[in-house]
Amino acid sequence: MNLPEKFTSRIKIDLYAEYEDFIGIYNEKPLHGIRLNTTKISREEFLGICPFELQSVPWDENGFIYDIEKCKPSKHPFYHAGLYYIQEPSAMAPANLLSPQTGDAVLDLCAAPGGKSVQLSSMMKDNGLLVCNDINPKRVRALIRNMEWFGIKNVMILNEEPARMAKIWKTSFDCVLVDAPCSGEGMFRRDSKAAASWEQYGGKACTEIQRGIIRDASEMLAENGKLVYSTCTFSMSENEKIVSGFVKENSGFEMGTIPEEWDISGELTIDGAEPVSGFGRVWPHKHRGEGHFMAKVHCRKTTGAVQAELHKAGKAAFGRGLEPVKDFIEENISGFEDCIARMDIHGGKVYIRPEKSFNLAGLKYVRNGWLIGEVEKGRFTPSQSFAMGLKKHQVLNTIDLSIEDPDVYKYLKGETLGVKCNKGWNLVCVEGYPLGWGKGQGGFLKNMYNKNWRMQG
């Protein structure tokens, strides 16, 4: 492929003896990967039903590489059940470096389209609070879709400027991920448009934005918290120099380490100063990935700013609008009492608020919790995201299809099914994993699968 001359000239200087090996990878096909959504299925369970030939990813035990010429995981019903996310292998490393724990308050500051957010939620076991933000309204739509597709419930989704968030949520998060906007050099092999964009803009426009974002992100990090900065570019000016410059200018922060077993760590010497270590790089000619940079920073002490309060969701007061929802849940869903207590309704849309959350006053948010459906003219219609966040055993009426059953694909294409089912709402599953809703009507199942998610062809 044709690469920008300025890019190849710089890489030749940076890599020197490794340059020919690096350039050679552009004559090879890009790598493809999947990462398991462990809120739905464990590694062992998935390998027991997996129909694909897979290779492990070194930095993620739940990540795998596949050959796109031999299989198409994105066309398989297990993907539509939210069991795995299609993700480039090196992109799996930053969230693993951050390594949030169950119950943490976690911020994914530049989250769209949501792959790393899904990964963070899996690591947290969907327990605690995940806040996902993206400044671009169009990209936020993709973020919402992925949070719904993969059944993420304890989530707040914002479309906000990081600087505004930093003013309101001082020293609030245990973990912050900054997958910063960058010049995208690691995308060249996968997307020819990325190289054309680089020719036009390069990385100069990114560095000021990156400095501002890491500064804003650090102000939202609690004492003893962790921040991971990452990009999918190779430029030192967007990577090592951004992080080392931030740590040098902010005495309350120090560099973390990269796991040795990943074999991606390195250090940088700038202007004859002492080498700075703690940087990780996935190089496509050395590792199984398209290219990623990452570094972890620890907050040793905070500025003394007042920390935003993480509060528990209180009980909802049932108004007339929520009565049909309560009736539906009592008739169809079991083990849902705690969620009922956190129910809210806005403009007819019904949400289950996160178990813990921050005050959203003054911020532009698009989702506060789990969208479970909509009330219109006194009737409640359950949402696709409600189905994706449930377990089969929670629902009274279910239709569990075998992966070999042609009705699985008929359902995903939006067709009516001639199956034995109970009257009313049924949760349609494949091998026990929810796909969506249907309504039983006289020996047929009316397909209620989200029209925007349906398989084509």
Notable traits:
457 residues; alpha+beta; Rossmann fold; Archaeosine Trna-guanine Transglycosylase, Chain: A, domain 4; 10-stranded mixed beta sheet; 4-stranded antiparallel beta sheet
Give an account of the 3D structure.
The protein has 457 residues and is an alpha+beta fold. The protein has three domains: 5-299, Rossmann fold (3-Layer(aba) Sandwich), CATH 3.40.50; 314-352 and 360-390, no CATH class; 391-457, Archaeosine Trna-guanine Transglycosylase, Chain: A, domain 4, CATH 2.30.130.60. 28% of the residues lie in helices and 27% in strands. The protein is built from 15 helices and 24 strands. The strands form five sheets. Strands 5, 6, 7, 8, 9, 10, 11, 12, 13 and 18 form a ten-stranded mixed beta sheet that branches. It has a four-stranded antiparallel beta sheet with strand order 2-3-1-4, covered by helices on one side. The chain has a four-stranded antiparallel beta sheet with strand order 15-16-19-20. α8 runs parallel beside α10. It starts with a helix and ends in a 10-residue tail after the last strand.
